Amino acid sequence: MHTELANRSLDNSRPGGIDRIYVHAKRFAEGNTVGSRAIRDFFGNLDRYKATEGLFVTASTFSSSARQTAEQLSKRIVLIDGDQLTRLMIRHGVGCPNRGNPVRQEG
Q1: Is 51 exposed, middle or buried (0-12, 13-18, 19+ CB in 10 A)?
Q2: 3-state SS assignment for residue 30
Q3: Secondary element (H or E) of residue 17
Q4: What share of the chain is helix, strand, coil (3-state, %, to 5)?
Q5: Predicted structure pTM score
Q6: Residue 57: phi, psi to the nearest 5?
Q7: pLDDT tens, residue by residue, 64-107
């Protein structure tokens, strides 16, 4: 299993205060899913970094228990899976040299 991690904490100024958003990105090999344990670990990091919200992005998919765990926790965690990420990249022209025919490079 190949995994790449990227963690980033962002301060986002908003009227009435500052929100701290914690971003976590995971790249799993095809066929591997992100489970509820990874979501619980991520939740712990939200507290550690005093974040009010979290964004968890994966090139893979989330298990149903991971999605359920994210919904039940006391902090907002947005989950973006590989399909959603691909659609967002195409919509915003990120990493897509030809917007009409997106090309996926196997690496």
Answers
A1: buried
A2: coil
A3: strand 17-27
A4: 30, 35, 35
A5: 0.71
A6: -115, 135
A7: 999 999 999 988 999 999 999 989 988 888 886 665 555 555 54
How many domains does one find in the chain?
Answer: 1
Helix H or strand E encompassing 45: helix 36-48
Residue 98 belongs to some domain of the structure? no
Q: Is the pLDDT of residue 18 over 60?
A: no
Tokens of 83: 């399909």
Residue 54, domain extent: 4-92
What's the CATH number where 72 sits?
A: 3.40.1350.10
- Say which amino acid occupies 32: N
The residues, any chain, with a CB within 8 Å of residue 8's CB and separated by 6 or more, are: 22, 23
